[in-house]
TrEMBL record:
This is KY-like immunoglobulin-like domain-containing protein. It comes from the Eukaryota. Residues 104-165, 170-289 form the KY-like immunoglobulin-like domain. It holds the Pfam family Ig-like_KY. It comes from Adineta steineri. InterPro entries: Ig-like_KY.
Amino acid sequence: MDQLQEFAAPGTCKELDCGGRPCAKCRKCRDWHFSGDQYQWNSVRNWENWKKVDEGRWGCEGLELFTKRDGATCRGAVSSFFCVDRALLDGSINIVDRVLLEHDANQQEIINGNRIYWNKEKDIWVCSFAPDRNGIFEAAILAKKKSDSGNFTSAVSFTIEAKQIPIPNISYPNTWSSFYDLGLKIQAPKNSTNAIWNDDASYTELLIQTPDDVQLSCDIKYNSAAIKHGSLAQFNNDKKLWQLLFAPECTGLHELVVYGKRISDTASATALVKFGLNVTNLQRPMKFPAVFSPFQSKKCQINTPLDGILKNGSVIPISCVIPDAVGVDIKVDSEWLPTEGYTNPNLERQITVGAKEVLIFVKYDQGANYLNIIKYTVE
C-alpha cells in the first residue's frame, strides 16, 4: 500500500489532520475534505465494506476515492474526484470508463459536463464534473474490471450543490485517451466544448500545447464530411504552441477534430480531441494552402498568405517559418524562381503569381531531394 501514502486521507466537512502525509495535488497537509453530508461520507469512507457485499461487481481490491477541496459544493468551478486504483498493486486493473453529471430536476445527463482520464504520473483516475447552472446535481462514476466484458456499473455517486456558475458555464470537449497519453494541454479555448466564432471572421483557431516530440493535424467536418483544405495545423514558433486553423464553407454546426502522434512514430495519427463550432455568419469563405510531410514534423508555419487560392498575376509577400532547412526554393507553374529570401528559420520574399500554382520546396540534407511542403492554387 506504499503507493497510496502520498495522499492525505479524506475527511469530513472540516479540514483534518492528515497525519503528516502530503496530498498528491499540492504536497501540503490538511488539504483534503469531503463537504457532503455524513451519510455520503460514510459511503466513501467505508468503501471496502460495501464493496465486499457486492463482490461480483468488483472482485480484487476495489477503488479508493478522494475528493478535491470543495468537491461536493461547486461554486462556479469544477468538482473533481480522484480515484486511486488499488488493484494496480496486484495487476488486476479496475477501469473507470464513464462519469455522468445529471440535474436533479429531470435526471438528464448534462452534455459535455464531465471529463475522465488516467493520470499516469500519479496512477489515478481523475473524474471532473462541471454543472451548467445553479442547483442540485448528481455526479456518478461507472466502472468495471478491465478483464470484464460486461457492462459498466455504477461505482459511486455524489450530490453536488452548484452555486455561482459562470456564464458561459464550464464545459469539456470530447477527448480520447491518447490526448492525455501524449501530454496535451488546451490553451484556447479554455474550459469550453466549443470553439469561438466571430461573425466577421473567415476562420477560427485552437491553441494546444504539446511535448516537443508530438505533432498534430486536424480536420473540420460538416454533416460528418471533412471539408477539403478547410483546416491547417501548424506550429506557432513564437508562442511554442500548435495552432489549429479551421475555415468553414457555410453557416451551421461543425466538428473540429485534432489528431496527433509522436514524431518518431511510423503509425498514423489518431483522434485526440473534438470541439464543436457554430458558424452564425460567414462573409468570405476561404481555403487554406495544401501542406505535405514534413511540414508538421519539422514544425513549419505559414504567416502569409494563409488563403490557399491566389489571384493570377498578383504580387504577394511570402512569409513562412521553416526551421533548419539547408535549402528553400519556390516554383511558379513550371518555372523555378531564383533562390533568395531564406535565412534559417525564416522565408521572406515577394513573388508574382502565375496561372496555375505556387509550390514551396525544401530540403533538409545536402544532396537530398527537394520536398514540396506547401501548395497554393490560382484562379
